[in-house]
Each structure stands twice: as structure tokens, then as C-alpha cells.
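Final report, results section. Input specification for complex C-07:
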Amino acid sequence: GAVVSQHPSWVICKSGTSVKIECRSLDFQATTMFWYRQFPKQSLMLMATSNEGSKATYEQGVEKDKFLINHASLTLSTLTVTSAHPEDSSFYICSARDKGKETQYFGPGTRLLVL
Amino acid sequence: DAKTTQPPSMDCAEGRAANLPCNHSTISGNEYVYWYRQIHSQGPQYIIHGLKNNETNEMASLIITEDRKSSTLILPHATLRDTAVYYCIVPPTGGFKTIFGAGTRLFVKA
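Structure output:
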């Protein structure tokens, strides 16, 4: 149990385009989902916290208009990187917290390369 | 949220126990200690968590000191596949945002 999936697992796009990444909790309901970004040889950096049915809370320094987060259901959150640039190339990881529990479960990550 | 301190790296021989320490001296009474690991190019994997008592599951054991200011993750028989970065985390109560530190890079050697 407690499986989180992400799609796509990797994506290459041209500079200026938008990319959508999906995060799904497959066997549990997630009232809260988190989005992280990880650069090579660094730890995970929290970007935003997403609660089902409400607006996401962004960490300091993360542009909410550039990283659009939607958490429309208890099993799905999406992150859209708008007008992507090469510096947005990174490993994006989502996590989901099981409803009523404290433990977070992480997705396998999405590797984004912006050319 | 309580900060954690971990050694940057550790080595372990295959088949031996790997003992990974974590200091969380500012932990408050109702905050849990969580351990995750991240194998290269993958998302973090949940290992174990505990509050006060020692915990054991199929992956590892968690030993928490009586004053709760530190803990040790024990992999009883490390294998090469246990080579990963191990993160000790104390999320704030209520399940709010989890902040990752640098973790401990464990190298299991044949």
C-alpha cells in the first residue's frame, strides 16, 4: 500500500514551453501533497504545500505564477512549470500524506530537462 | 520544526549492521522521528518512524533515546542495495511541511 505515482517520469522540452507533471496517490486519499525540487548532489527543497480544494502554499522564493499547482481531488495534484527555462531543469518529486495520518509517501520523481 | 543533525557520510561492510545516528535535541514532546532513504535518481522511500518507543519493521529498527534528543537507525544486515542517502526528519505536528536536511550518505561495500 501507500503508493504514489508521477507522470511523466522524464520530459524534455524547449525553452518557453509549459510542462505539466501529475502526482497521484494510488491506494489512499491524500488531503495534503507536497512538491519538491532537487538539483544534482543536493537535498530535496520544498517548493509548495497543496491541500485538496484550496490554494497551494508556496515556500519563500518560489514563484507561484511560474509553478502552478492544482490539487483538485484527494488523489491527484498537478504541477505546471510555465514558460520553462534551462534553469528550471531539475528533478521534481511529489509526496502525499495519507488522510488522517502523519506519514508522507513519495513519488518516483520526474526529471525535467529544458533545452 | 525540530532540526536534525546527521553525519555527512558513513561506510559499512556488506552483511554487517549499519547504525546511522541522528541528533534532534530540539524535538518537542509530540513530534515523531521519521527516517527516509533516497537511492540515486529515485524518490525518497519511507523506512520507519517512532515517537518514544523503539520500533522495528521488515526494513530496519529505530532506537530513540529516553530523552528523545537523538535516535539511531539500524539496518541489521546491510546489502549493496542499501547504499543511499538516509534522511532523519522531525516534521512539525499536524503533518505540515517536511524539510529535508543533507542526510547521511551510506556506502555499503562488498
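The CA atoms of residues 21 and 72 of chain B lie 4 Å apart. Chain B touches chain A at residues 32, 34, 36, 38, 41-46, 49, 87, 91, 95-103 (CB under 8 Å). This concludes the modelling results for the funded period.
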